[in-house]
Amino acid sequence: MGDTAIIIMAAGKGKRMKSNLPKVLHNLAGKPILNYVLDTVDQLKAKRKILIVGYKSDKIRELIGDKIEYVEQKEQLGTAHAVLQTKKLLSDFIGDVLILSGDVPFLTVKTLKKLLKYHQANNFCCTLVSAILKNPKGYGRIVRDKEGKIKRIVEDVDLSADKKKITEINSGIYCFNKEKLFQVLEKITTDNKQGEYYLTDTVEILLGEGLTIGNIIVKDYSEISGINDRLDLADASKKVYQKILQDLMAQGVTIVDTNSTFIEQGVKIGQDSIIYPFTIIEKSTKIGKNCIIGPNSHLIDSRIGKGVKVWASIIEDSNIEERAKIGPYAHLRPKTVIKKGAKIGNFVEVKKSTIGEDSKASHLTYLGDAIIGKRVNIGAGTITCNYDGEKKYKTVIEDKVFIGSNNTLVAPVKLGKDSYTGAGSTITEDVPAGNLAIARSRQRNISGWRKRKKENKE
Ligand code: UD1
Ligand code: CA
Asked: Of 68, 69, 169, 178, which Cα lies nearest the Cα of 120?
């Protein structure tokens, strides 16, 4: 078998998306559309891998990095024009060229291997992948003669009324003999409704030269569905999410409602965990066994130990150890660590803090840049004042401290082991171990005050 070069077309703006972001960078269930294609290509051996970029190419380069060769298509004049831009880069290359579209994300390695094998075994000048679709609208159609031989590909917009009914579509995936490909590309014109250089026109030209076109038909048409507009994107997302949920359920995770649960690829969840509705779990979040997550929770890039309960809360880039209880309505911001059995309750925000084993912050609290020991009780309404407008400061609360309700802890400050603070205190100085700190003005009761007020009025 000769060498293979892979070309991925991704220069288009994606007009039908009506977006300023290049189409292939739109997020599809957790990663850009283009990354699906690149991840597939990663699994194929090829001498050269080239990405054709154009519209906002700097954004694509920035995201993908230097794991692939780039070629710039300055003006997007059509798919044939796009492929032509690789001519120089491939001038020394001898072999076959596999052409993929950056907007066809579900194509499998298996199909691509099959295509290459079939193409090379038969020594075709071009082999294309097609599929039969119930709703072929928007795709180029494969026009065949009476004997069933391929005659040409006609784009949806260029179809005559009688050919609209053709259900066999062009997937936009092809394998070409390199020499033939660049010869035929030079011959393509813009004689069509869109005034573009169509790669699909290569088929009719090659056939006209007496050459044979190979063809494989994929059965699972969803594999080759392209994403052109936001509706396609939503349909594709649904497909990815449903597949992930099915895999999780097969591993022993309960998903109460598969329609309102969105879990990204790469998330791991242990057996007998239950995911309640309206929950989103993203990035490489890991959840242990026997957890209860949701309803209404959003977990991003976090590690959750076994037996944890997360109820109606948001957790970002944090570590939650086993048996901890979070929520309802808690917000754990990045670099938070909640140790075993700790509880973060109603309307509590925690940022870049460690909460020790079996400690509790049950209500209405902000803990930022704090290091909290074991079995600490944080009273309702406690606020760490960690920021003076310029710098951030630490609050250290040692084991078994009891913070009264509505305390203001002005950092940097340290509360020693077993210390205690009175409700409503503003703590500005360190509290030694075992001490009680009261930092509020004493209450004064003024007798007969109301009565005198009334009399003054009369
Ligand atoms: C293309 C095919 C169509 C096929 C469909 C399958 C052509 C003319 N038509 O149509 O037969 O059914 O794919 O999904 O090829 N691109 C460039 N530069 C350009 C134009 C496009 O790089 O000048 C890239 C796009 O970014 C995209 C890919 O090529 O990734 C396909 O382009 P798109 O405009 O989506 O083609 P379709 O109309 O879907
Ligand atoms: Ca397309």
From this structure: 178
Per the CB < 8 A criterion, the answer to whether 53 and 75 are in contact is no
Q: What is the pLDDT of residues 58-91, one digit of tens each?
A: 999 999 999 999 999 999 999 999 999 999 999 9
Angle of the 57-64 helix axis to the 33-42 helix axis, nearest 10: 50
Look at ligand 1, atom 25, and give the residue with the nearest C-alpha.
12
Instruction: Give me the residue label for tokens 């059995």.
Output: 341
pLDDT at 132: 95
Write down the pLDDT at residue 305: 98
What's the CA gap between 121 and 319, in Å, rounded? 53
Catalytic residue list contains 298: no
370 strand-pairing partners? 395
Task: Report the C-alpha gap between 312 and 277 in whole angstroms.
Answer: 10
Check residue 74 and give its pLDDT: 96
Percent helix, strand and coil across the chain, each to the nearest 5: 20, 30, 45
- What are the CA-CA distances from residue 93 to residues 48, 80, 150 (Å)? 9, 19, 29
**Cα separation, 381 vs 404, whole angstroms:** 9
Q: Are 272 and 290 in contact (CB under 8 A)?
A: yes
> Do 341 and 324 touch, CB atoms closer than 8 A?
yes
pLDDT in tens, 289-320: 999 999 999 999 999 999 999 999 999 999 99
User: And the tokens for 161?
Assistant: 């009324």
| CA separation for the pair 313, 326 (Å, rounded) | 7
Cα torsion 400, 403, 405, 408: sign = negative
State the burial class of residue 320 (Cβ atoms within 10 Å of its Cβ: 0-12, 13-18, 19+): buried
Q: Are 313 and 295 in contact (CB under 8 A)?
A: no
Q: Minimal CA–CA distance to 84: which of 215, 189, 233, 206?
A: 189
Reported as a single tens digit per residue, the pLDDT across 228-245 is 999 999 999 999 999 999
Q: Which amino acid is at 393?
A: Y
Residues 174-223: tens digit of each pLDDT: 999 999 999 999 999 999 999 999 999 999 999 999 999 999 999 998 89
Ligand 1 pocket list (CB less than 6 A): 9-12, 24, 52, 73, 76-79, 81-82, 101-104, 139-140, 153, 155, 169-172, 198-200, 226, 228
The C-alpha atoms of residue 350 and residue 330 are separated, in whole angstroms, by 8
What whole-number distance in Å separates Cα of residue 266 and Cα of residue 283? Answer: 7
Nearest CA to ligand 1 atom 31: 101
